[in-house]
Specification:
It is elongated and about 55 Å long. By secondary structure, the protein is mostly helical. The N and C termini lie close together (9 Å). It has one domain (2-128). It contains five helices and no strands.
Length: 132
């Protein structure tokens, strides 16, 4: 169960790395504008610094989760699980904030929180059952 939890954590981290790329690197490009519903180049330029900063939040959550996966694999399950819970748990929380604050963005929120939620639930079951 730990392995499956870590696979989902890895998928969540990859998704958040992609979101980082969209927000911090490709924000004014057509893919990011389409993904986030930015209607004009002017709007993209106006919101660029906000998106740039937000992208780094996603990067840091992904990095914490990846380091946690590596720690578990390297034989430090307590440190690793703690980092995965912090990184993936924050991804779930951010997805819930988006869902509750902007119900029209439910699809994006559920996409953002699905992988990390599965990871957190499975990892919690593994920890509580003594499987780590």
């Amino acid at each position: 169960m730990v392995v499956v939890a870590l696979v989902f954590a890895g998928l969540a981290a990859l998704l958040h790395l992609y979101i980082f790329w969209l927000e911090s690197i490709a924000w004014t490009g057509p893919r990011a504008r389409r993904t986030f519903g930015i209607r004009s180049q002017e709007e993209a330029e106006t919101t660029r610094s906000l998106a740039f900063n937000q992208g780094f939040y996603n990067l840091f959550l992904a990095v914490a989760t990846i380091i946690g996966i590596v720690c578990v694999a390297a034989g430090s399950p307590t440190v690793g699980a703690t980092l995965v819970f912090a990184g993936a748990g924050s991804m779930v929380a951010a997805g819930l904030v988006l869902l509750l604050s902007s119900p029209s963005k439910a699809r994006a929120a559920l996409t953002q929180l699905a992988f990390p939620l599965v990871s957190v639930v499975l990892l919690a079951i593994a920890v509580l059952s003594g499987g780590m």
